[in-house]
Amino acid sequence: MDDLFPETRERLSLSSGAVLLGGFARAEAQALLHAVEIITQQAPFRHYRVAGGGRMAAAMTACGDYGWVSDGQGYRYVRTDPLTGRPWPALPSLFLALAGRAARAAGYEGFVPQCGLINRYAPGAGMGLHQDRDERIMEAPVVSVSLGLSAFFQWGGAQRQDTCRKVLLHHGDVVVWGGPSRSHFHGVLPVRSAQTGTGLECRYNLTFRVVD
Ligand code: MD3
Ligand code: FE
């Protein structure tokens, strides 16, 4: 993909297929957070169990045809929220439109996500290095939107041992992860509290995914 603005944060190629769109969602951040609020009234944030008996540090919920869940037996996408027994709330049109626009800006036409995964990180919470490969379709990109507190995103390679880069993600930043980057290892360093000007005391991350 052509790197049109290699030195600006406005559109920064992180690695093969991954594009950081700095501040791409800032103008609509309040509307996005309002939509998150509505979703969590129907599908509250929860801390999933992970293999080994612990719980995830990030609280999660989802919207769309599928949500990603974990219960200690494993991870998977399901159409019903295990907490409520109801289907996940619909993907708000605001989410669909933003995800489509961001994907297009990164060179991916016709992106229509089936899942909006919502992660909430209180200060101190992070996410260990992992790959996302529970989706059956790995050709579509993942679009991620950061809101609230900034955090260092850890960005590795195809192998767990590969050297990681640290990329600071701020309120309103969008990253589109396509091509080879789609299967790379990644994580989030423990979030540190700060005065943000946004009044938010957590970091929120929305990821939009095609599942099957
Ligand atoms: C690169 N979330 O939910 S978003 C996750 O900030 C996850 O909450 C982090 O990793 C967060 O699985 C990172 C950035 C991200 C999301 C999915 C990816 C990067 C990705 C999938 C493939 C490659
Ligand atoms: Fe991930």
From TrEMBL:
The entry's keywords: Dioxygenase, Iron, Metal-binding, Oxidoreductase
Protein's UniProt keywords contain Cell membrane: no
Needed cofactors: Fe(2+)
Keyword Transferase: no
Top-level taxon of origin: Bacteria
PROSITE patterns the record matches: FE2OG_OXY (PS51471)
Annotated transmembrane regions: none
Gene3D superfamilies reported in the protein's UniProt record: Alpha-ketoglutarate-dependent dioxygenase AlkB-like (2.60.120.590)
Fe2OG dioxygenase domain sequence ranges: 111-212
Pfam families to which the protein is assigned, alphabetical: 2OG-FeII_Oxy_2
Protein name per Swiss-Prot or TrEMBL: DNA oxidative demethylase AlkB
UniProt organism field: Bombella favorum
